[in-house]
Amino acid sequence: MADEEGQAEVLPGFTVHGMGVGKWLAWQRKTEALQALTDGQRERLEQLGIVPTGPGSRRSPQSRPRRL
């Protein structure tokens, strides 16, 4: 995936080490999950385009990266 540009499409049911990638991604976007991470971990997720959603998120919907 490092050779690809943008975000890769993850098909429903795709797992890594038995964990559903979609469920993991949804959890990482929750404010309470992000608060439990270190600053460096949050920065790496943001570099991948994973930003908080919902109430209490740090970014407005307009500033979130768009998925093309």
What's the short story on this structure?
The protein contains 3 helices and 2 strands, in the order E-E-H-H-H. A hairpin with a 2-residue loop joins strand 1 and strand 2.
Beta-strand content: 5-15%
Mean pLDDT: 77
**Number of H- or I-type helical stretches:** 3
Helix-and-strand structural type: mainly alpha
Span of the ends, CA to CA: 16 Å
Helix share, percent: 25-40%
Strand arrangement across the biggest beta sheet: 1-2
- Secondary structure: number of strands: 2
Characterize the biggest β-sheet: 2 strands, antiparallel
Textual characterization of the structure:
A hairpin with a 2-residue loop joins strand 1 (15-16) and strand 2 (19-20). Helices cover 32% and strands 6% of the residues. The chain is globular. With 68 residues, the protein is mainly alpha-helical. It has a two-stranded antiparallel ribbon. The protein is built from three helices and two strands, in the order ββααα. Mean pLDDT is 77; it is low at 59-64.
What is this structure's SSE topology?
Layout: E1 15-16, E2 19-20, H1 21-28, H2 31-35, H3 39-47
Antiparallel strand pairs: 1-2
Keywords summarizing the entry:
68 residues; mainly alpha; two-stranded antiparallel sheet; 3 helices; 2 strands
